[in-house]
Specification:
Elements (H helix, E strand, L loop, with lengths): L1 E4 L5 H8 L11 H11 L5 E8 L2 E11 L3 H4 L2 E9 L8 H15 L4 E4 L6 H9 L18
Parallel strand pairs: 4-5
Antiparallel strand pairs: 1-2, 2-3, 3-4
């Protein structure tokens, strides 16, 4: 198993994996997804990470490096869409991909890493806390924007 950055050829497998993350991901448009990935790959501030095992994408997360002028102008790492294929859970793969995102954040001189998770994913919250994330230190607010 290796952890690496996403390449365009991984996109179909990533979309299949995202279907396990949330029921809203059942009908992801591949053409729109390609445009988003291509745009993301043009910046060093966004990293889609994948865990690959024998050619199969088995886990993923994305990391956004957010420039920041507070805290001595140190950036913030933001991790979201953490998913491990249900057939590969409990093997340390999710832990390794998150650790890779944290390592990349350190390399970018981030002063902290924020990880966002759905409120109902309580087992995931326990997992993140075991990795050192504090689920009680901040409160996040979410404003959903309607589609036009």
């Amino acid at each position: 198993m290796i952890i690496r950055e996403l390449i365009p050829d991984d996109l179909t497998q990533l979309i299949d994996l995202y279907k396990q993350l949330d029921s809203n991901n059942i009908n992801i448009d591949i053409n729109n997804a390609k445009k988003i990935i291509e745009k993301s790959m043009k910046t060093e501030m966004i990293k889609y990470l994948v865990a690959e095992d024998n050619g199969k994408i088995i886990a993923s997360c994305y990391l956004v490096i957010i420039p920041n002028i507070t805290n001595n102008c140190r950036s913030i790492g933001f991790i979201e869409n953490v998913i491990t294929d249900e057939n590969y859970r409990g093997k340390g793969i999710g832990k390794n991909i998150i650790r890779k995102a944290i390592e990349l954040s350190r390399n970018e001189n981030c002063y902290k890493v924020i990880l966002q998770s759905g409120m109902k994913r309580e087992s995931a919250h326990t997992f993140y806390e075991k990795l050192g994330f504090d689920g009680e230190s901040k409160k996040a607010f979410d404003l959903r924007l309607e589609e036009n």
